[in-house]
From TrEMBL:
It comes from the Bacteria. The keyword Ubl conjugation does not apply. This is DUF418 domain-containing protein. InterPro entries: Bact_Transport_Assoc (IPR052529), DUF418 (IPR007349). The chain crosses the membrane at residues 27-47, 67-87, 99-120, 126-141, 148-171, 220-241, 253-270, 290-307, 328-348, 354-374. Keywords: Membrane, Transmembrane, Transmembrane helix. Residues 240-393 form the DUF418 domain. The keyword Transmembrane applies. It comes from Domibacillus antri.
Length: 396
């Protein structure tokens, strides 16, 4: 999302790198949409997903999302966010101007937009969290790419290893400590509000959902240590020109993809192989397996974009990536209009597979619309607004 318009100022010889970055944004946006769809049409925040879906078709569809999508595309999106912030920082540095106040204005806008999005459209907002972590990232941008990459990786995996160990020990001491559970009261409140409530009742429920996810029992601190590492890694990747280096060395990139894909897939499969009701296994799946699989996806996309024909096939997704902020917000608006009571009121009435097909349909329309829009304009509407508020004028 961040920095999508900046790539246009780079040299023509870096076409592969530019397309790879925007395609990564676009496809990660689609992956996030697939997961978000579950919470658009069901009380996903409060139920045990391994027990909620009863039919074999739903269980199979959810398992595919759980293994291949869940916790693997939001890290990729967050890395691209950090990548873009570092890109803007380095550009400002090259032009001899300070990036601090520019970054603060951009992130402040994102904080406010995220709160509006969460309270009045959909409570699963990520903009607020990314922006808060972005403020912390500003303090680290002066460091080298190598340091950013090392620190981000350590901050990601060391706490994950420690928490995984604690959860495993807790499960050994008492199996009830590590069991997924369904909050029946919250599920009922969500169904009542979103399925048949007034707009005011739905807004109250949205605010409660957002507070439960972000502010209860230290959850915001947990979100911070879960998201910030990806921003640091993305910023480090930009400074080290990792995308360009991967594109220039397709054989090494192919090996990297295979190693990380196999390792990530094995870790993502842990709950399904051992015990899907065990929170420890699910945490390992998401906190460790998810990011590893995300790196494999990034390597695979860059690898494909290194060759002419695959690049042509993937290029339409680049437009969706350049308009990722607009498309992300539009997905929430469309999703809630389909499922909430002030819209078509289909909340709690669709299957996982139906939700997947809705995602494919809506995102396909967004890809087409993004390409048509960028054929006439330089930026998406929300991207243009973001830039105008940041710089106080409309940039060309």
């Amino acid at each position: 999302m961040e920095g999508a318009f900046l790539v246009q100022s780079l040299s023509a010889g870096e076409t592969t790198r530019i397309i790879s970055i925007d395609v990564l944004r676009g496809l990660s946006l689609f992956g996030i949409f697939l997961v978000n769809m579950l919470s658009f049409h069901s009380p996903y925040f409060y139920y045990n997903p391994y027990e909620w879906w009863k039919t074999s078709q739903d269980l199979t569809a959810f398992s595919w999302i759980d293994i291949f999508i869940q916790a693997s595309f939001y890290p990729l999106f967050a890395m691209m966010f950090g990548f873009g912030v570092a890109m803007q920082y380095e550009k400002a540095k090259q032009q001899g101007r300070s990036f601090a106040w520019t970054g603060i204005r951009r992130l402040t806008f994102l904080v406010l937009l995220g709160l509006v999005h969460a309270f009045f459209i959909w409570p699963g907002d990520i903009l607020f969290n990314y922006a808060v972590c972005g403020f912390v990232l500003l303090l680290f941008l002066r460091f080298s790419g190598r340091l950013l990459l090392i620190f981000g990786t350590a901050l990601l995996f060391l706490p994950a290893a420690f928490i995984s160990l604690l959860l495993i020990l807790a499960a050994q001491m008492d199996a009830n400590n590590a069991i997924h559970w369904t909050d029946i009261a919250s599920v009922s409140q969500s169904i009542a509000a979103y399925g048949s409530g007034t707009y005011a009742e739905i807004t109250t429920q949205r605010i409660n959902d957002w507070l439960n996810v972000n502010m209860v029992d230290g959850s915001f601190f947990f979100q911070l240590i879960s998201i910030l590492p990806f921003l640091l890694i993305g910023a480090g990747a930009f400074k080290l020109n990792m995308v360009g280096r991967w594109a220039a060395q397709p054989k090494k990139t192919a090996v990297l993809f295979l190693v990380f894909f196999i390792a990530g897939l094995l870790l993502k499969w842990v709950p399904h192989i051992l015990d899907s009701s065990n929170v420890a296994y699910s945490y390992i799946q998401d906190a460790v397996g998810g990011p590893i699989l995300a790196v494999s996806y990034a390597a695979f996309i860059v690898l494909l974009c290194s060759f002419e024909q695959p690049q042509k096939l993937l290029k339409p997704f680049a437009a969706a990536g350049k308009m990722s902020l607009t498309n992300y917000l539009t997905q929430s608006i469309i999703g809630t209009l389909i499922f909430y009571h002030y819209g078509l009121a289909y909340y709690g009435q669709v299957t996982v597979l139906t939700g997947i097909w809705l995602c494919v349909t809506i995102f396909s329309i967004q890809v087409i619309a993004s390409n048509l829009w960028l054929g006439r304009f330089k930026r998406g509407p929300f991207e243009a607004l973001w830039r105008t508020i940041t710089y106080g004028k409309r940039g060309k």
